[in-house]
Structure formats: structure tokens, C-alpha cells
Amino acid sequence: MAFFSKLLDALVGVKPMKETTSDQLAKGSRKNITYQDPWLTIHEPYFHGHGNYSPNQRWIVGFRDSDGVSTGGMRENGNGAVVLVDIQKEQVLHAQGHFARPVAALVSDTGNYILHDSGFGVGLKGDLIACNIAGKETYRRHFEANIISIGLSQNGRYAVTQTANAPNSIDGNLLELVDLEHKAVLFSENPISGWANTYAFEIDASGVIKKLYVDLQMGRFAYSSAGEFLDKKDYLNARLTKGDFTSKLFAAQELLQLDSTEEGAQKALCAADEALVDQTCDHPHWRAIAYRVRGECFELLGQPAQALVSYEHALNLNPKVGVKKRMTSLRKSSSQ
Questions:
Q1: What does CATH list as the number for 240-335?
Q2: For the domain 2-230, what is the CATH code?
Q3: How far apart are CA 268 and CA 287, in angstroms?
Q4: CA angle, corner 152, sides to 234 and 177, nearest 5?
Q5: Which tens digits make up the pLDDT trace of 25-79?
Q6: Taking the model in full, what pTM does it have?
Q7: Are the beta carbons of 88 and 111 closer than 8 angstroms?
Q8: What integer is the mean pLDDT of 248-253?
């Protein structure tokens, strides 16, 4: 091979390509760490998985459900991996391989981070785990429910977890806010706003949380640090105008209970009409509810004939929709 290489060099002036060694790689002959959202790749020590920047883009936390052999997912063994990277110094601070199935992780501006570990085997469960910049575990909360989403404040002090429904478990459908610094749960409630995927934190100058914001398709809504939902009116209006047909119908029913004025009836009627023209609202159950809402709106607006027509549509779609007594009452009133 050496003879042919020399011959090739002599003939065309091209030198054979040299292989890149792992030592050269680590010394910077090419970047050891690359991040192309959402993928983080580290050549030494080798890691490839999802990654998330800190808000100040100083740190990246990488996480991988797979054990490096399988593709990840439900299994009985084979830990995943978590790494913390200092992008400013292009340095891997630590790599941890003792977590079972890290499926999500977030890092703060301080380098402290949290992760969601789904755990091995079947069943409704998940762990919220917090680690400091040195990789030491500082907090762990086990849920007997699947975790949907997690959030971390910019200063790394507060974490939020949303769980899915879990029959026979007190951990189901919880929005839980924890103060990681004091290892204290600030609130743990069934959220009025439903399930969010992302969160924002309002922190005062002393680093204390004032509000937790949940981000939904319909907008951003606030909870107090004690768990009080602060944007009930805005959330109701968003559901009436921006939600899918089920959200609009539930919101319209709620509005009629809260506001029996003409203005409230008009808003609820508009939401019911929009639900009926939604092509996905094709199930008799939902269409019956929409017509019932229309009937109740027309009653409040003083239009009994229109109300009766809507109730009849509802009854034809679902005999158990609950409008028979209303129809009887309206007919008696009109015959007097």
C-alpha cells in the first residue's frame, strides 16, 4: 500500500487522506460539541440525543431515553443518559447514566436542571428530578401518574409538573408547582385551564415567584403562586372564540350559568352556532348539546318559538339531552 501511495503522489501530486484520530477530535480538529435544535451531539464522550438551551444560552442539557442500543421506549432495563454542557467553554461538565428513561429535561440560567424520568416497566408513573450544576440530585418527586410536561424558572428555583389522568390515583391531572430551593410544594391542583405544554414564570427582583403562566393554543393564562387561577374571565372568552367545538360548547354552557343577561346569551349563541358549522362537530351527542345551548339562549333572549325549534332538533338527535321539561314549559306559556 505504501508503494502505491507514493506512486500516486508522484503521478498526480495528491497525498492520501489521513484518518482523524479521537485525540485530534478531542483537541479541536473539529467541533466536539454540536447542537442543531433539537439534536445535541458530543463526540467525546460520545452522546447523541435531544438537547435544550438555558434561556441565556450558556448551558445545554442533553437527554436520551435510549440505552444506546435500543431505540428507547418502554422496557425493563437499560438506562438512558443525561449530559450538561457549558457552551461558553465548549465543555462537558458531566454525563450521567443512572437514570432509567429521561424523556425530557430543562436547564436554567444557573446550570441547575430538571428532568422527567419515565421509569422502567408498564404502569402510570413518572419522576420529576432536579440536579445542580455538579450533577448532584437535589430533589425528586415520584408521581403515580404519567407526566405530560415540565417547566423550570429561569433562575432554577421553581419547577412545575403537569400529570395526565390516572384512575385510582391522587396524582392524576395535577398541576404542581414546587420551590426547589426549599423542597416545598407551593400548590398541587387540578388545573381549571386544562393541560399546558409550556410555562412561563414571573419572578420578582428578589427571585421569588409571583405568577405561573400556562401556555395553551388559546393564549397564556396566569395562576398565583398559591394556585389561584387569575384569568377565569379571559380563559372563558378564549374558549368561546378560539377553542374547538367542544371547548366552545362547554364554555357556552358555563357562560349561561354565570351570565343570564342578553349579552351573555348572545355570546353563548354565537359559540353554539360556530360549533354547529364546524365540520368535525358531526356526532349526534355534540350537535344535540349545541342545539340545546341555542334553545337556552333563545329563551333568555325572549324568543320562545326559536327556542322550541332548537330544542326539537336537540331531542331528535339525542332523546336524553334534557330538554323535555323546557319544551313543555314553553308550550304551556305560549298557549296561555
A1: 1.25.40
A2: 2.40.128.630
A3: 15
A4: 65
A5: 344 446 899 999 999 999 999 999 999 999 999 999 999 999 888 888 999 999 9
A6: 0.85
A7: no
A8: 97
